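Problem 3 from the worked examples.
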Amino acid sequence: MRNNSIKLQYFFILILICFGCGCNNRQNKSVSVLKPGKDEMAELNRYLVQKDREIIENYAERKNLNMAESRAGLWYMIINEGSGDYFADNDRVVMEYDCSLLDGTLCYSSESLGPKEIILGKTEIEQGLNEGLRMLKPGGQAIFIIPPFLAYGLIGDGEKIPSRSVIVYSVKIMKNIEME
């Protein structure tokens, strides 16, 4: 019986040694993950912004659109500025719109969803659309081409707009109502 007890002790010691060696080997074999630094990320961002710019320029040329680019990177063509005052924070804007991808895929439209009503500065909308609407007055009409960094970025909208998509908004302002 004593002989079996000694064998059992040796067996447990052997298992502990194997387990300990196995753990040490796993620690020594840890994989080093290279993480890009700020400079590499900035360079990648500049590259992506430049590629998006080239894609937008090609699209505008193919469609014969006379687009301008804002300092922030929004591409726009004002068809009709409208009349009255430019839109500002807290203005309620009601618009008809089509939102599509550059390949022509219609994502969202006031024809199917109804006019879009927003309050500038309060309603969450794409940063590029927010900037574009401030270029218009009541009754205005425009085309906005919004690069990913001013729209839905790397993740898309989770529904119809894929990641890193350039989107095109064709908007017509129906009216605006001052907030009280």
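Problem 4, a separate protein:
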Amino acid sequence: MNIVVCVKYVPDATADRRFEDDNTVDRAGVDGLLSELDEYAVEQALQIKEKLGDAGGDVEITVLSVGPDEATDAIRKALQMGADKGVHVVDDAVAGSDAPATSLVLAEAVKKIGAWDLVVCGMASTDGSMGVVPAMLSERLGVPGVTLGSEIDLDGDTVKIRRDGDTATQTVEGTLPLVLSVTDQSGEARYPSFKGIMAAKKKPMETWSLADLGVDADLVGLSAAWTVVEGTEARPPRTQGEVVTDEDGSGATALVEFLASKKFI
């Protein structure tokens, strides 16, 4: 089985993140890392590999990322976790791409990778949080999309997931090949071991451009985006919250009224 895991290099959520003059996210002025939600996708691919490996199956995991030069750090961490090889699509024309353009580049890269059975994605990126790329990717590849899985079971060519919603839990299944996305409830992602870190240095990583994929540069980037950020506003500084005292015995009542006003109770 051949598995492709799509991962994204994102600005560190703990950093002082900013926007550029064109209202795109400043990715050069802050440190970046592998999107936390994509770590769960890598983990599920590794669990599938381990399960099938125990049964005598042969599984190869390719990590795919579209991003700047620094995106190799995200790929490298996935290789340290246990993936087998990496593919990095890097091209200046990609900067500012929205979800439709990103899904286009990913789809063409998956096709170029060749024979594949399963594409695994996180539920969303921690910078954009749109969560639509897996569905768009499955449409472009012409295969089923089994999305938002909090529990994943692979039985032969059938992938079955449990999808937990606000009011109900669904069981969804599809037949390989397909695109799968997983949530942060699917299983805690492992940390790279020292052995894994050393082994990752010898694992292959290819670098492709848009020309290598046959993608017209006019179809991607900020100028081709279907969605545009029209304005941004800095988050206001935190202020002191309301302090409830109980000097006259009314503290409990004041606390209940406050919680009720915020609809906590």
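Solution to problem 4. The mean pLDDT is 92. The chain has one domain: 2-224.
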